[in-house]
Each structure stands twice: as structure tokens, then as C-alpha cells.
């Protein structure tokens, strides 16, 4: 940490800063220039709130934290890219993974038929919501346990691993009995107790980016999970909130290379929630893969016009089947391939 | 709900829309103009996702929802302003209520001395965090139950009711044994299961606005609590996230009159979290009261430079004592008074 | 336009609305439901501010404008995609066009060498700033006329058409003597008099998106140019301003398919200004092409570390030469090709 | 400037940074710690783009600029608050100044009657648009020279100085013949050539904050004017663009104390453009004054429902007359008074 004193800081103010540093068992290194004094803080650990504290100290102009707040999620202590294996599917490796399925699990027929369709088109993981967060208390909130059972049936029928959202610590056990991957939704991305509890559950966790979450905060959310000893975290960009009304959210595609530069964790893109409109999903999916995403999460429904949630952004089976070869082509263009079980390539 | 068809919509597309409306047990009213057809949906209840569904229908240009999504929080079914009584303190009445106290409860001495100081200066409710949400897992997270006990002691010593945050459903019982008002933090403002559970706990609930929460979503969060039969909800604006780096958040002071126009619930302003810097807290507090806020929530600490959290934005005792008469003056200027127990006015 | 009256609107309030509509020479169509009255406005032209006016009328709940504010830029009156020919280069056709060059023209040597390098690597249009908008009055503002002469020399040497920014109406003549395409910068995207004047200058115009410009406003900026009889407008997404500090701006890649759905105009992506950091430029360029952009605008400099502006986001010659084959590959994957003069393909 | 090298930076990378600093005629001061090296740049002037340059240098982790980019607008070189005298009105002194008038000058009758009404209610400066920036080319754009003449007539009739917008350098002479204060609109706040030209015109200039302008950029816009030798600049906060749809813009009331802390220039608040809705204007005006604004700019129209622009946010004469005593009361509560010519106080 570097503390830049104001031009007019008094010797007493500088001394107060130095004393406070020493109180904490750290050392201070002074660099006295003609115009101002700069104090370097030497030693560790530096309390996480020390920059806040010094910023309001008398005579201090600016405080610069040099060390990163995140540790386990960064490259410094984990120089290999994280590759997660879920049943037969590898996430974060050379291949691009496509997760697809309905927003909500509505019935066994709807879910199993979607699973079959998306698998045939090249998806390798099935998504589906059993516990649904809804902005209004009067909307459909998912089938709960029955939804989880249906997802398990779809897994049996197709062999696809499943991912589903968990919304509260009390549901972790129940959801964990069924799911292969826990999903933390955007609105819970800074629900720290949920992150810690799910970190203890022994299964991979996907963390959607919060609607106005800075990327560093997102890595710190992942840090909450990893600090419980769970190394298998996936990040999923799903659009942030901006002033533009023509899309439900604004897909921050830059998050893909930015996260790659900061972290070894796999980074996915969810074009469906970002767009909020079916017609945009394909373009955003391709953009995500071109930017280097390790995977996509796409909503597909047998009859989107009658979906109980998010129908406007769900693709039909045909639309999804038309999209996956284009995803494969773009993946190929950036030196990757589509993770597929064979059916896509006609094997 | 009004469905505006595109200029070139085919009769079949119009019929499909009408059929779908009738399937739902609703009625359709057609208005066929020279350029386009407009379909009115008559009847109730209209499924909450129907606008989404129709927006992606063939031939539809635009869908306009006329009825509001929130009910219990709006003026339509509750034409009187909500006034909440917590022990001797009235919230949402003619007086402006000041809640003050430390960000985190750190010790009995720190908390009790703060309680005495803020009471003497005009605050009537004590705040203090026992369970703290922190961006990083490596920061101080509060004293937990011990913190709650300390708050209770401070209440005994001063007679001030207390408010403290609850972060997860499992903590509601414990926190409820001590607190007078539950606080839901900004990061949990769309943690719907927490909102529902706290709605059942039989005590007033303050909901901080989420960092990028639209005001309508905030009212729907309040709706989650009220739908459990709990009428005592307080809203608290504490700044939203924007591009401006010189403040921690951007205080949306317009939220005060906007909420007032939409809802009967008391609306507070938290200048401390909005500003993030002590030097701005006073101005934002006065702005909030001038805009019509029913109350303020201000962080005060005996020694802010050594606070375990949010020191940079906490006022000293002296700064707070210097601020409250100015708050009282502005309250007077807008036809209200500062809710005070006497000491302020020298009675 | 549809005017939704409040549930409790009085007959007088409805009549006032109807009278006002008739005063304007328009007709009103009433639809009186059980709960509320809805007024349709029939006829044209509807004054552009009428929705604002009615929104503050007594008894009005909501006003819905049905007709689009933009005309010339939309598909309705121009069902073919706009293709612009600048010397030998086609913009908006099947091929993806790459514009490249330095942020600022600094010297003949710097500009000509960059032109040769980017042409060899596959770019077909040269960019370079002679008049530079700078946040601070103390920064380098371009060589002015001398810069334009240098660009013209580079065009002679390489045959590449050139694009350069014009910042004020008084400079249009001078800039127009040299440039093939006028560029309107992001900070001038709502400088309406500049847009109109440049619309009269008889050359294609590229409009960068403003930092917080809604897409509809951007189309209206293009409308200002087109209303002068100039059909050759190119839109260029270059990132919008959000809360995320790790990128200079947030590239709104969704703007590509959204603009495509609304307008026949070519849409480009500028990954350099969006990212602000060299390491991100490649990924964003590929994302833009995958999303369907008609072209890219990329900053390249012989020695970025010593550039007089925007060095941090400029690619070296080698980095650009390494990137263009990847752009060509992604273009191929989405059914397009890189617009090239031969050198790239070894012809 | 401080350059923090990465932990793994090589001696060559450190040397390259030092060499580059020396090439610029500056000096480098090395502080080699156990973990990393920190390079201080000593001397002046530091090129404004040097931080960008070093941020992309090999081995550099972070660059910290210590000196501020703005000079003339800051307190360092101008420790007294700027007070501007326009005819009989003092701006930036102890009194709060209210500017009021119609959005657009529509007719002599409309403007003169408004001037009389707002003067009677306590305003001391008249606003009115003769050249109007409009999002769409098809909207009313003001009466131009005729509008300026009408404003001058209103000044003669009432004695109030006038403020009106200038949109392009070519209009400065014409507008300057009439106006007392030039207004630069939000969309032109980074139109640097306009700022420079208006800076030469020898009259006070009010700069509205751009829709997504950081406060530091705003001060730099003022710096453009002041660098021409014009010390009389007024800043006016009018709302920034956020995700919240219920207000036209989000009034950043914090800008008032933040600007006060950074600059000696007067800071105003425009509640009308921020709110976009008449019903909110009063609350925001009071909030601005409570936060410490030196003045307000409020739209008033004899018949807002039929205004040619911004009718929805304009107050009627009665509404304005009802508001000014409340403004005076809040001004009094924060130790100021309403700048009034006597009529308000019945003198």
C-alpha cells in the first residue's frame, strides 16, 4: 500500500500515519520529495479496510492498494487454467461447452423432450430451474423438489449432467441430492452466506455475474466459494444493467478476456438473459465464443410462447439446432471446438 | 394490457394473439385502424409474464402493461400513509426520524458510548451491524450473537429501539430475539426467500435499495414482505451504482419523491453509504430531508479512523452533534420537525 | 399514439384530452372499458413532443407512442441494406471491412509506414486523427491541416481511402478537401449542427456512438445527416460508459444485432476505444465480427509506447498482422469474408 | 506519478521505464522493496498521456497519477470562491440565485409574461432557449435570432439579466450580442472547440454537466473556458443517465458538495431536466439548495401543456410562486438567503 500525502501535509500528519502503520505491526517506508511525502506500507497482512481508513486521515491525498484483494481465484497462486470434469463433460478445457435447456422445469415431458433436442443439437449439459427467483411475489416460482426429480429423470434419459439454481442455504441439501452443478443467480451473487454454504457442498458452482457487479467483486464472490476448499467454480457473464432499454441487459463481452487475464476459472456467457429477446441470442452467443468464452448457457423451450418464464428469450428446438453449427464454426475459427458427444458430427 | 400489432401483421397473426388470450380465460377487444390493429386484453388476472410472451409473438410490435405489478405497496389499496410505531418512536409521521450508530458493533463500550452520544444529539433509533456482508471473505464480518447482545445492552442503557441487519433466513430467529427492526441490506434486496421469511417474523423491516435496483423492483421487494401479512416496511435509498468514481455510490435523491408518489411506505435516506466519504455525509443528509425523506440513517463512530468497517464514511460524535441541528432546521423549512426525545431541544 | 387514462379519470379529463387532440387537426378514437378509458390518436403528423405533453395531463396514466421517431434510417422506407462505395472499397456488403491506423497523425513517416503495414495485413481504409478532441485542454490536439496533408500522402502511397474526424462546422471544408469519409466522434454524436453541416458535405459520414447514447438516439443522429440528403452513413459502436473500471468503456456488442434489426445502415465496431487496453482489442474485434458487424476500426501504431495519444490501446504492426487472419477466420465462420485487396491472400 | 512494477518485473523492464522517464527530461526515483520496485517520477510537466503509456509497458502493474489534471478550476491556485456579478445579480456569493423561464422562447407574450411572473416570485435571472438542441431533426428548434430579440425585450421590461444556450461557434457572435450569460448544454459539454470559442467571448459561461460526464471531466471542460482567460464559469448539475426509467435523468445531488470540495466555481442545480416531470421539480430544487447549491435553474411556462418543448417538466406560474418561499426557507435553514430584488419579501 502506498499513501500519498497532500502537498501541505504537516510533519505531525505524516507521523500519525506512520504511527498507525506501526501499531498494526507493519513497517513504513518514507519517500520525502520536494513537493510531498509518500509513505509505503511494508509487511503483511494489510487489513482489508486500511485503505478506507487512511483515505479519511488528515493530510492524506490518496491511498493506493497494490496487492490484489482476491487470491485463490487469481493466476498468482494457480498458474494452470482450471478444468472441471462433470460426469463425462470437461469444462474449461480446449472445447467450448454448451449448456442448454428451459428457463423453468414445467413438466417431465417439456424437460425430457428439451434435453433430447438440445443434446441432439450439440449441448452437453442440461439446465432447468426448479427454484426460480422472481421480481414479483405473484409470478411462477418453480416446481421445487418435483422439478429436481424431473431434471434427474432427464439426466437418466440422456446421460447429460444437470445444472440448477439454489437460492437459499436451506435448499442446498435438497438441490445437492439431484444437481451436478449448483447455479448461483445474478441476484444472489453477493449473498455471501449462500456462497459459503454452497462452497461446502462438494460440487461445482457456477456464479452468474450480478447486475451491477464489478469484475473484481465477482472474483471475490468466487473467492467465498473457493475459501471453503471448493476449487470448481465457473463464472458466467449474463449482462449488466445500463441505460439502454432495447436489451434486457447489456452483455459485457469484454468480461470474457478481462476475467481470463485475471483468473484461472472458466468463464461462460449467457446470451439469453443478456438479450432478453430471442432474435439477439444467436449473435451474442457467437460473440461470446469469439471473445474466448469457455462455454455458453442458452435457454431452449419446446414452445417458448407458452413458457412459464422467460419465453421471450428462449429458442425453439429448430432455432437451437440451427445455431449450434454456427457456434461450432466460430469455435473452430478461434482454435477451439464444440464439446460434443458425437451426434452433432454425425458419428 | 394493450397489444399493438405491426403495420404489416397478417390476419392470422392477429387471430393467433386473440386465441391465445381466450385460452387464458381472458377477453380480447380489437380496434382495427387504417394502419394497424390494436388488441386490448380484458379480464383478470393477467399472467405476469404475458407481456414477455406477446412481445416475441409474430406480428406484434409492442406490448403495453397498464396495471401495476405492485399492489400492497401502492396507494390504490392503502390510501393512508403508513406510520410505524417502534417502542416510543413513530416512523413515517410528521417528524423526521434519525437512526444513527456504528457500522459494526465492535465492543460494548464503543456501542453504548455511541448510543448515548447519538441520542444526546437527537437520534431516536440505534443502528449497528452484528452480521456484516463483506465483499471479500477476508474482512471482518461482525460479532454475531455477541453483537446482538451488545445492541440490547445499549437499548437498555438508552431506551432507544435498535435496528440491525439480517443476512440469511437461518439467522432470523436469533436476530429477531434482539432487534426491533430488521434491516435487509442492499446486496440482499432481491434475495426473495429472505424477504419472505423476514416478512413472517412479526417486526418492521427496512429494505435498502439494491445497487442497481429500479424503483419498481424495490416496491416489489417490499411486496414480498407485505404479502406475508407484515404491513410495516420502510424503504431506504442508499445510492445506486453509476460511472462516477468520486462517490462510493450515487445518491438517487429523486427516489424520495418518486417513492412518495407511488407508495404509502416511509422512505429513508442513508447518506453514509451513498457518499462513502465523511465530508459529504452532511450535505446528502440535508438534501434527503429537503426532498421529503421520512428519516435518515447515519453512521457514527467514536473513533472512525480505527473502525473495523466503513470508517471513512462515519461521523465522529462531534460531527454528528453539529449536524443534527442543521437537519432540524431543514426539516422545519419543509414543514416537519426532528423526532426528538427532548434532549436536543434542551427540554 | 395511445393515451391510457387513469382508473379514476373524470369525463372532463377525458374530454380535455380529446379536445387537445382535435386542436392539433388529429382525430381521437375512444375505447371505454369497465375500468378505464383508452384514447387512440389517429392522423399525422403527430407532434414529436405530444407524448411528453400528455404524460403530464390530468387523468392520464401512460402515453404510448407507436410510430417510430426515426424514418430515413429505418427499414420501413429503405428495405435494402445500405452499401457504400468509397474508392475501391465497399462498406456494408458481404465483406467485413477493416479500418486501421494511428489514433493521431504524428508525422509522415509514422502515418505512411502504418498505412503500408495495415494494408499488407488486410486493412482497406486508413484512419488517423488530425483534429483530436481531448478531455483536457493541455493535451496534444493533432496536427490540423498538416495532418490532413499527411493522410493524403499516405493515400497516394498506398491507394487506401482515408477517414478522419471533423470536430466543428468551420473545419468541414478543410477536412472535406482531404478525407474520403468524415468521422463524427463520440463526444460530438449529439452535436446536431455539426451533424447537419456534415450531412451537406457530400461524403460518407461515420457516427461513433456517444458514451451514454441510447440506440434510438443514435439512429436519430444519423437521421440528422440523412435528412440533408446524404444516404451514406455508417454507425460505429465504441463502448458505452458503465460502472466497470477495468475497461475504458463497456463494448455493447448487442448494439450490432439491435441496429441490424432497426436500420439498413452499416454497423462497425471499434474495439480499441471500447477496451482502452491493447490486450483486449483482439477478443473484442472477433466478438464484433461474430455478432455481425460490417467492419472494424482498429488503432495501430509503429511504436505505441510513444504515441502522442491512446498508446495504451494501439496494436503494434506485428500484433495487427497476427490479428487479421483471425478476423478473417471468424468472418468466414459467420458466412462473410475479409474485404482485402489481395495481399492478405497472397495474390 | 508513481509506477508500481509487477512482482516478477525484470531489471530490464525497470530500466526501460527509467530510461523512458529520462528521455522526457524527468527524473526517476527508485524504491526497491522485497517484493517489488516502485518508480517515482519527479519533475514537471508530466505529459498528460504518460500514465496511459506506462500502463501498457511490460512489467508495470499500476500507474498512479498524483497531480490533478485540472488547474485553473481547482482551489490550489484560486483559494477564494468565485463570485460572478451579472448586472445587479451576484452569483456564487452568500445568496442562492434562482434562474427561471421557459424551456424555449416561443413568443414575446409568452416570454415577457413568464419573466414578470418569475421575477415577482423571486427569480433574478431569466432563462429561455432560442437555439434548441433536439434529439430528433423533426422537432421544434427554437426561434433563433427572433428568440434572442424577445429575450432582450423581456430584459428591458423586467431588468432581469438573461441566459440562453449557444450550440455552435458560428452562433457565438449573434448570441453574444444579446445574452448576459452563455449556456453550454449537456450534449455540448465536451464540444471542446465550442468551449474554447465561448471562452473568448468575454461573458460568463454556464456549463451543464454531460449525461455521463465524470465530475473531473466537467472541471476539465470548465478548464477549456478558463484557459482562454475567462474566469466566470458556472457549473450546473442536471442529472446523469442511469438505468432508472422513472426519472428522465438521475439528479446527482452529491455533485454539489463534491464540486465544492474540488473547485471555487459556483455550482447550480437544474431540477427540471433532471426530473423530467413537474411533480418532482420542487423536491429536487429543495434538495439541491439543502446540499449547498449556489443556485437553481427552473423551467416555468404560462401554459406547460402547450409548450413547444419540455412541457412535462415545466412549472406553471402558480406552482413556481408556491415553490420559491419553500426554497427561501431551505436556503435560510442552511445559512443562506434567496437572492431577491425585493418583490418576494414584499419590499
TrEMBL record, chains A, B, C, D:
A Pfam match: DAHP_synth_1
GO biological process terms held by the UniProt record: aromatic amino acid family biosynthetic process
Domain of life of the source: Bacteria
Keywords noted in UniProt: Transferase
Coiled coil: none
UniProt GO MF annotations: 3-deoxy-7-phosphoheptulonate synthase activity; aldehyde-lyase activity
Listed EC numbers: 2.5.1.54
Record keyword Transferase present: yes
Domain spans labelled DAHP synthase ferredoxin-like: 1-68
NCBIfam families (alphabetical): DAHP_synth_Bsub, PRK08673.1, PRK12595.1
Name under which the protein is recorded: 2-keto-3-deoxy-D-arabino-heptulosonate-7-phosphat e synthase I beta
Source organism (scientific name): uncultured Thermomicrobiales bacterium
Lineage of origin: Bacteria, Pseudomonadati, Thermomicrobiota, Thermomicrobia, Thermomicrobiales
Amino acid at each position: 500500500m502506498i499513501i500519498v500525502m497532500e502537498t501541505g501535509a504537516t510533519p505531525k500528519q505524516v507521523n500519525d500515519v506512520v504511527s498507525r502503520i506501526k501499531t498494526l505491526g507493519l513497517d513504513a517506508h518514507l519517500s520525502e520529495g520536494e513537493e510531498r511525502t509518500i509513505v509505503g506500507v511494508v509487511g503483511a497482512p494489510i487489513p482489508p479496510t486500511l485503505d478506507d481508513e487512511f483515505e479519511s486521515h488528515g493530510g492524506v491525498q490518496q491511498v493506493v492498494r497494490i496487492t490484489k484483494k482476491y487470491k485463490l481465484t487469481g493466476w498468482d497462486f494457480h498458474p494452470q487454467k482450471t478444468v472441471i470434469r462433470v460426469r463425462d463433460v470437461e469444462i474449461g478445457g480446449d472445447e467450448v461447452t454448451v449448456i442448454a435447456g428451459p428457463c423453468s422445469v414445467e413438466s417431465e415431458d417439456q424437460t425430457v423432450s428439451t434435453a433430447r433436442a438440445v443434446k441432439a443439437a450439440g449441448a452437453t449439459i442440461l439446465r432447468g430451474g426448479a427454484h426460480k427467483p422472481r421480481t414479483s411475489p405473484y409470478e411462477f416460482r418453480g416446481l421445487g423438489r418435483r422439478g429436481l426429480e424431473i431434471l434427474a429423470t432427464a439426466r437418466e434419459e440422456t446421460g447429460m449432467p444437470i445444472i440448477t439454481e439454489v437460492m437459499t442455504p436451506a435448499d442446498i441439501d435438497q438441490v445437492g441430492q439431484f444437481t451436478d452443478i449448483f447455479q448461483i443467480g445474478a441476484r444472489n451473487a453477493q449473498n455471501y452466506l449462500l456462497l459459503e454454504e454452497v462452497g461446502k457442498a462438494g460440487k461445482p458452482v457456477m456464479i452468474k455475474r450480478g447486475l451491477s457487479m464489478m469484475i473484481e467483486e465477482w472474483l471475490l464472490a468466487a473467492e467465498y466459494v473457493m475459501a471453503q476448499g471448493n476449487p470448481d467454480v465457473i463464472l458466467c457473464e449474463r449482462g449488466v444493467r445500463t441505460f439502454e432499454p432495447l436489451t434486457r441487459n447489456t452483455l459485457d463481452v469484454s468480461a470474457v478476456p478481462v476475467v481470463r487475464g485475471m483468473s484461472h476459472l472458466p468463464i461462460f456467457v449467457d446470451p439469453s438473459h443478456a438479450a432478453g429477446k430471442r432474435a439477439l441470442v444467436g449473435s451474442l452467443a457467437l460473440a461470446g465464443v469469439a471473445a474466448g468464452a469457455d462455454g455458453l448457457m442458452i435457454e431452449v423451450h419446446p414452445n417458448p410462447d407458452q413458457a412459464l418464464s422467460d419465453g421471450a428469450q428462449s429458442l425453439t428446438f429448430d432455432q437451437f439446432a440451427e445455431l449450434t453449427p454456427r457456434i461450432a464454426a466460430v469455435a473452430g475459427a478461434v482454435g477451439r471446438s464444440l464439446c460434443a458427444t458425437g451426434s452433432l458430427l454425425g458419428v
